[in-house]
Amino acid sequence: MPAHLDPWERRLLADPDLLGDLAFALGGPFHVMYPARVGQNIRAFRAAFAHAGVHGVIYYGKKANKAACVARACAEHGAGVDVASVGELTAALAQGVRGDELMVTGPAKADELLWLAARHGALIAVDDLGELERLARLASTDEPARVLIRVLPAASASRFGMTSGETDAAVALCGAHGSIRLEGFSFHLSGYDAVARADLAGELIARCLHARTLGHPATTVSIGGGFGVDYVPAEAAMAFTAGVGRQWFHSGKSFDSYYPYHFPVPGAAMLAQILDHADLAGRLRDNAVRLAIEPGRALLAHAGCTVFRVQGSKIRHAHGEPYRLLTVDGTSLSLSEQWFDSEYLPDPVLWPARPGAATPTSVGAATCLDSDMLSWRRVPLPRPAEVGDLLIYPNTAGYQMDSNESAFHELPIPPKVVLHDAPGERFRWTRDGN
């Protein structure tokens, strides 16, 4: 499952010294962030909006990665940030994101978060009627709280959002409180279905029009996130799906499902597909409704990687054939798929590159848990890995690198290194400010 590598990643891997120097200086596993790629992703989403002639706004789903450099890239490239806690809100402000560029989401938000969000003029996606009542008391009629009503999609089993009846009641509550300004409606869908998102967005345009007849501005529809990321080539994904079985994994491990690591219409291309379906773009333009999106993983696509050092190596056998079982200096908490009973499939890259014979290799962590494996699958590394070599897992910035990390065994959380372009195709680096 060879990963798509960005030009900056190829430059990093080709540098004869930088990765080794970073590993020496940091003394353990670390993450590498390249925020310039976040800027490229923001520009791609903006271009999709512009091509469709739609007023669009981007809110980065901050839960996907805590790195300060990502919030700074959003501030520098005109994207907002979607936050769900006081900590996330203040971290975004600290990186230059303005209060009115924030969207605040999450269920039954604490009074402190609601007050702070209203104070800064953030757009608040309200999840239930009780939360709306509390917000009305916390906000001021002089500066009404800006609100989206989060709608529960039909037939959804999600615990988030309001039913149709609750949504009607919420609209009425907004009309009864001068401290609330109803700016529109939002939803979130699981999965990656562009048509379903376009259809539900169309329904919320109709809700906006009805709300306007009641005196509300209602000019925004947010369709949330769920924009796919393309990690590996189609051929590799098809070959994996056709042949996968316990025989490919250490200890005969199996998984019920995997993230769709090949995604043919990723990121901004998926947004274009949504806007094109049933002329959603035309309906947005004709009714003066702006479309908000909340990408997390897709805004981080190809913007980071994770580096481990090989600490040990054993030979094991499966079906009469030998394979390597490595131990690296980190844990699978830094590859979050493992903690959702799945596998992170893009192949790690072995550094430095040297000649050798292809070697099936599974990768274990430096903990006392037999189940703590970074790669159960026997990955075909290009040569036998040696102690001191580095394994670079590509494209881990979206959710993988820190959503489940902890100081298990009192091991430190891996630091984040931020790469900056320098003259002569060089990189300079700093540690992330988070």
TrEMBL record:
GO molecular function per UniProt: alanine racemase activity
Enzyme class: isomerase
Entry cofactors: pyridoxal 5'-phosphate
InterPro entries in the record: Ala_racemase/Decarboxylase_C, De-COase2_N, Orn/DAP/Arg_de-COase, PLP-binding_barrel
Pfam families: Orn_Arg_deC_N (PF02784)
Spans through the membrane: none
Entry's EC annotation: 5.1.1.1
Residue stretches making up the Orn/DAP/Arg decarboxylase 2 N-terminal domain: 40-298
Keywords: Isomerase, Pyridoxal phosphate
PANTHER family: DIAMINOPIMELATE DECARBOXYLASE, GROUP IV DECARBOXYLASE
Name the record gives this protein: Alanine racemase
Organism: Nocardia beijingensis
